[in-house]
Amino acid sequence: MIKNSLSRFMSPKHLMSALFISALAVLINQGCTPKSDDTRELIRFPIDNMDNLIFQPGMSFDQTISSDGKGSLRIFTVDSTTFRLYETGKMDVENAHLTYQSKIKTQDLQGRIYLEMWCSFPGRGEFFSRDLQSPVSGTTDWITEATYFYLRKDEKPDNIKLNLVVAGRGTVWIDDIRVLRTPVRKIEGAKPK
Questions:
Q1: This prediction's pTM
Q2: What domain range is 63 assigned to?
Q3: Which of 54, 62, 165, 174 has the fewest CB neighbours in a 10 Å radius?
Q4: How many domains, the chain?
Q5: 26 & 40 share domain
Q6: Interval 133-148: pLDDT, tens
Q7: Are residues 13 and 48 in the same domain?
Q8: How many percent of the chain have pLDDT more than 70?
Q9: One domain, residues 72 and 102
């Protein structure tokens, strides 16, 4: 019965082609997707104090509210603002997926917030990545947010800026900022270009 139903929609030749294309898509996706066991932390800002933070009005250290019990950065704003938090300086990384990850908590946030990462390349300028897929708003407990940047071979940033964008008003806490590196896996048998 099922075989007869399928044959009305797709010939065996077309079915095999569709299965082949699906399998190929899975293989290609695996070659471009970060593999968690290969991920390495490049730099970490635990925010246990205000050291190395790029201070702006509206920022303060909060010893009582924290994802790890050691304090966090509290940001209060009444207007949309981009908060520059840290700069990494030169990073010896290429041909990888970069991840800017942090813990975030919000209270009465009207609007939305998201992470933003700017990678600077000598002679080429700056390029950014924003976590617009999952902006945070309202009141939340601690959640992990991340944004990603793909580096090709020979693309080595001489600086990475880690920002928090508040598009609205309210209170945000940010803690445990990390920059992670995951190598780009190659598909077995693929020929380099």
A1: 0.77
A2: 36-183
A3: 54
A4: 2
A5: no
A6: 888 999 999 999 999 9
A7: no
A8: 77
A9: yes
Torsion angle of the four alpha carbons 121, 182, 98, 47, in this order, in degrees rounded to the nearest 10 = -120
CA distance 58 to 83: 9
Same domain? 153 vs 168: yes
Residue predicted with more confidence, 134 or 25: 134
Domain co-membership, 83 together with 9 = no
Tokens (6 digits) for 68: 């790890």
Q: In DSSP terms, which residues pair with 90 in a beta bridge? A: none
Stretch 93-113: mean pLDDT: 96
Helix/strand/coil (H, E, C) string of 92-126? Answer: CCCCEEEEEEEEEEEEEEEEEEEEEEEEEECCCEE
With H, G, I as helix, E, B as strand and everything else as coil, classify residue 72.
Answer: strand
Q: Name the residue with tokens 């190659």.
A: 186
Q: Are 180 and 38 within 8 A, CB to CB?
A: no
Q: Which amino acid is at 164?
A: L
Cα distance between residue 168 and residue 137, in whole Å: 9
Residue 49, in any domain of the structure = yes
Give a yes or no: residue 61 inside a domain.
yes
Per-position b or e across 47-81, b if 16+ CB within 10 A of its CB: bbeeeebeeeebbeebeeebbeeebbbbbebeeeb
Domain of 49, CATH number, reads 2.60.120.260
Q: Alpha-carbon distance 157 to 18, whole Å?
A: 40
